[in-house]
Amino acid sequence: MAEVEETLKRIQAHKGVIGTIVVNAEGIPIRTTLDSSTTVQYAGLLHQLTMKARSTVRDIDPQNDLTFLRIRSKKHEIMVAPDKEYLLIVIQNPSE
Amino acid sequence: MEIVYVYTKKRSEFGRQCNFSDKPAELHVDILPDPSLTDNFIDRDPCDVAIQCTQEMSEHEVNTERFDCEPCGINHVEGGWPKDVNSQEMEQTIRYRKKVEKDENYVNTLMQLGSHMEHCIRQNNTIDIYQEYFEEEEIVEEMEGQPSAKTVNVFRDPNEVKRTATSLSWHPDGSCKLAVAYSSMEFQKVTKDMSYDSYIWDLENTNKPEMTLKPVSPLVCLEYNPKDSHILIGGSYNGQIAYWDTRKGSQPVEMSAVEHSHRDPVYKVIWLQSKTGTDSFSASTDGQVLWWDIRKMSEPTERLVLDPSKKGNLDNALGAFSLEFETTMPTKFMVGTEQGVVVSCNRKAKTPAEKIVCTYSGHYGPIYALQRNPFFPKNFLTVADWTARIWSEDIRDSSIMWTKYHMAYLSDGCWSPARPSVFFTVKMDGTLDIWDFLFKQNDPTLSLKVCDEALYSLRVQDNGRFLGCGSQLGTATLLEISSGLCTLQKNEKALATAMFERETKREKILEACHREMRLKERSRSEQSKEDEAKDGEAEESAEELVACAEREFYEVVEAEMKKRGKDDKKEKEKYERKLGKTVSNENIFMFTDYLNTSSQEF
């Protein structure tokens, strides 16, 4: 429990990190550093996207699996680390 | 409350009462069957009756209720919560969350994911993976390999007796037509059956010319009017000028009067820039330059005699071989003469004496081509004898750049209209040279053997891509040059300007040096003359000078021949070794000639 806290705190403390969200398999945000409405949006949308991405990877090669998903946009980068049950989402502003 | 209306009427007024009574049945009519009527009918035997032994079914239509679809977006609102947790209640959600966080699986997963994530975050922070490294650098277009030129089409003289293609002119709009003037330039070689015609060729059709021009005497030069693409003007062998309108047919529309024309073949005729678009001028080896208005060809509008002594004396005049006129400088024009001198003239001068502004000498033979650089009008190209020279208007004594002396006579040349540093020359051995002096100055960038006979004329089309050359046997060859030679390179103008300026400066410095030296010599010789006047040293007579010059000349020739002999011997030995037998001397000359020509072809 404490390690989890420490990990999340460390992640949040990195340069450029705007927010961190932990989402479970049902799409419920367990832990978040952003405000509620943004969190809900990110959780719902990214969950679906991650599912789609994973299914794509597995369709092409069933032995393969999705390990990481990075979406780089004009303003920032959204990084999603998927797992069977949970999803760790971090929004970072990459160094310019 | 009901609304009632009551009215009364007497019984006697609405008819009698009905009285019904019973009566027993009565037979009114009885019709018995009449057997005689059966004669009107025939028994049908057999009778076809359809019977079916199936279930009886009935048809019935049914339509289901339509399912209404509507596309719409989803707005994610909190969801996914299990049934027992009310998402609105903060307490419940917090409790649920806390429960999840206590799950061991959660802890392990998150540790793993966290480390993975940290790696990526750190990556992002160290390096910007989408950094544009070469943003400002423009894509340098590489020249596609070697410069090359390839023959696209060949137009042969359809007549039996072949004449030389002495002049070519491109159609002013687009590149669909080429006018070629044919005449025999050899003195008195015109036979009776030699035709006088010149042709306009359509570039696609090499079998038959599109149009024939029938002059009175063979045409030596031919030009399309840049303003009106139907009008062509031609200078003929007998000195007359004629003009054609392609809409009106093969005969010239008008010819100049014989008395007032040139007395020698007209070597060049150029259209002038004027409001009416009908002015032109012509030059011939009789020493005159005449101006014509094609509306009135009976007499030239102006006449200039190229007399270097400026007296207008026709006997002294230099024969004109080529003309140059640049539309950006309408008052000046230049004439290249047979004597190897370029005369620069001013059109607007009042007296004929002032017309000739200055002369540039430096060539040893007639100047076959003279053209200003389309990008740098102050520099012009002359092609004569065995060299091509580039001159600057300011330097009168010598050219600023020149090519080496070739083995064959150069017969025509012109600048490329697309690139300021490229020009083309053709030689009497049938080769076409493309020079790019920003790339290489000693040798042509590309040397192509177009045909076996001599090439007499050359013309580049306005886009710089196609060029036509005319040969001695009347074959006009159309070549296409590679795009590297006809597209303007980066900085080319600046580099060419720099080169021209450098060469001009060099010549100026040399000129200044020479002048100084001459001054010194003169002052020294004057002094020495005073000192040695008593000695009576006779000046060298003219004959002695001539004899001296002859001696020197023969010495040089013999030295060259000896060198050639040594080379020939070496070649002979090599050849013998190859063949394994001795070779006679005649074979050597043929062999060395072959070697010489093959070394010229790139």
From TrEMBL, chain A:
One cellular-component annotation, GO: cytoplasmic dynein complex
Residue ranges occupied by any Roadblock/LAMTOR2 domain in the UniProt entry: 4-92
Keywords for this protein: Cytoplasm, Cytoskeleton, Dynein, Microtubule, Motor protein, Transport
UniProt GO MF annotations: dynein intermediate chain binding
Chief place of localization: cytoplasm
GO biological process: microtubule-based movement
Protein localization: Cytoplasm, Cytoskeleton
Record Pfam families: Robl_LC7
Keyword Flavoprotein assigned: no
The keyword Transport belongs to this UniProt entry's keyword annotation: yes
Family recorded in the similarity comment: Belongs to the GAMAD family.
Function: Acts as one of several non-catalytic accessory components of the cytoplasmic dynein 1 complex that are thought to be involved in linking dynein to cargos and to adapter proteins that regulate dynein function. Cytoplasmic dynein 1 acts as a motor for the intracellular retrograde motility of vesicles and organelles along microtubules.
The name this protein goes by in its record: Dynein light chain roadblock
Gene: DYNLRB2
From TrEMBL, chain B:
Coiled-coil stretches noted in the UniProt entry, renumbered to this chain: none
Entry GO MF terms: dynein heavy chain binding; dynein light chain binding
Region (Disordered): 520-544
InterPro entries the record matches: Dynein_IC, WD40/YVTN_repeat-like_dom_sf, WD40_repeat_dom_sf, WD40_rpt
One BP term from GO: outer dynein arm assembly
SUPFAM superfamilies per record: WD40 repeat-like (SSF50978)
Species this protein is from: Electrophorus electricus (Electric eel)
Name by which UniProt lists this protein: Dynein, axonemal, intermediate chain 2b
A Gene Ontology cellular-component term: microtubule
Cellular localization per UniProt: Cytoplasm, Cytoskeleton, Cilium axoneme
SMART domains: WD40
Primary location class: cytoplasm
Domain of life assignment: Eukaryota
